[in-house]
Design goal:
This protein has one domain. The longest helix has 20 residues. It is mainly alpha-helical and 155 residues long. 19% of the residues are buried. The chain is globular and about 45 Å long. Helix 1 runs antiparallel to helix 2. The chain has seven helices and two strands; from the N terminus they run ααααααββα. It has a two-stranded antiparallel ribbon with strand order 1-2.
Length: 155
């Protein structure tokens, strides 16, 4: 999934927690930013393995699936276990901090494992960055934006 979806999904879930008084708006935004920033591991992978600091190159390789090893530990089973232990430790100190990280991480992994067999995609290039967005992801984003607007306008 693209960064926008990784931002909108935890934001939507977190805003629901705002409605119930568990999160503040700032905590909801933090959760969304963390959910999106988890994919910085793709860039770190390019730096570590290829000494490639070019953001555009990293982006385009990820979009075109040219680098099959681009996902670091955080996107695999050992990373899942490590982050779960880390979140559990956060629970000792702050329920909200643990919830923010959990919302960001687990929603990110959930989205990364959605693979709908719809071949229609929006392919385009903008300022040298390649995009190959599945049609269903556009629909998901529209639905998430509508839900976010409903929550914000009814608060």
């Amino acid at each position: 999934m693209y960064p926008l979806t990784h931002f909108l999904f935890p934001l939507t879930l977190s805003l629901i927690l705002v409605v119930f008084g568990f999160f503040t708006y700032l905590q909801a935004i933090l959760s969304a930013l963390l959910g999106m920033s988890i994919d910085l591991d793709h860039y770190l992978h390019r730096i570590i393995y290829y000494k490639d600091f070019n953001v555009k190159s990293c982006w385009n390789k990820a979009v075109t699936h040219k680098d099959k090893r681009e996902r670091t530990l955080i996107h695999h089973e050992k990373g899942f276990i490590f982050v779960t232990i880390l979140i559990t430790i956060f629970l000792i100190f702050s329920t909200k901090l643990a919830a923010i990280f959990a919302m960001a991480f687990y929603s990110h992994l959930l989205l990364d494992h959605i693979h709908i067999k719809i071949k229609r995609r929006f392919k385009f290039k903008e300022v040298g960055f390649k995009f190959n967005i599945p049609f269903y992801e556009v629909i998901i984003n529209i639905i998430l934006i509508i839900i976010i607007l409903i929550i914000i306008l009814n608060k």
